[in-house]
Structures are given as structure tokens and as C-alpha cells.
Hints:
Blueprint: E1 2-3, H1 7-17, E2 20-27, E3 33-34, E4 37-38, E5 46-51, E6 54-59, E7 73-85, E8 92-96, E9 108-112, E10 124-126
Antiparallel strand pairs: 1-10, 2-7, 2-10, 3-4, 5-6, 7-8, 8-9
Amino acid sequence: MIKARSPCSAANEMKKRGPISASMVVYEDFLTYKSGKLAENDPLYQVPILIGWVYDIVTFPFAGIYQHVHGEVLGRLTVKLIGFNDTHVPKYWTAVNSWGPQWGENGTFKIVRGQSECLIESSLYSVWIN
Length: 130
């Protein structure tokens, strides 16, 4: 078992050995993640964001990638990271949780990568048997 030291080392481990495990903090707004975005009835589905000196309305989250905005901590969740994207801005992980295919995007979700969103990058583990 190894503990990845950075998102880059975790991505390299995934390239060599496949999916890795991660633990993350779950907030109330994570429950509304569905099909790449928050549910449209969520009050924060569209949020004002400062771009330069001007506020603009932006659909949250950025391109269907989960990023905590509101709500209390509900606990922790262990997930399986099955992929990542370095070309999209912001960069993201693709993960599977244990809530079944009716949740999120057929049981998967995207979460911001590289800034330890929900502390997901503080506990990345890869396990293999020789």
C-alpha cells in the first residue's frame, strides 16, 4: 500500500496500477450533485462570480465538477478514483461512491483536482499485491 504525496503522484499511480482509494469530507451540497451539476432547484445552481471588476452569473459548478459552496459537514466518505483530467480547467478527478447508479452520473462524480477539495487529496491510497 502506498499513500500518494500529491495529485501528480496519485495520477501517475493510477496510470500504472489503476483506480486508487480516497477519503473525502461530505457537505450538504454534495447530496444534490446529479448528472454533472447541482440539482436545478438548488438555490446555488447559478451564482454570481467576480470576473475582473464585473460580476457575472455563472452556472455552478464549473462544467459539472463538484466544488463545495454551502452546507454543513455531514461526515466522511471513501470513494474510488477511476480517472482524472488535466486538460480541462479546472482539473478534476472522476470518482465512484457507494451510493449506487441512481446518484450523480450513474454513481460517479467529478471533483476539483489539485486543491484538495473536501480534503480528498489528503488521503489518497493505492493498494496492490505482489
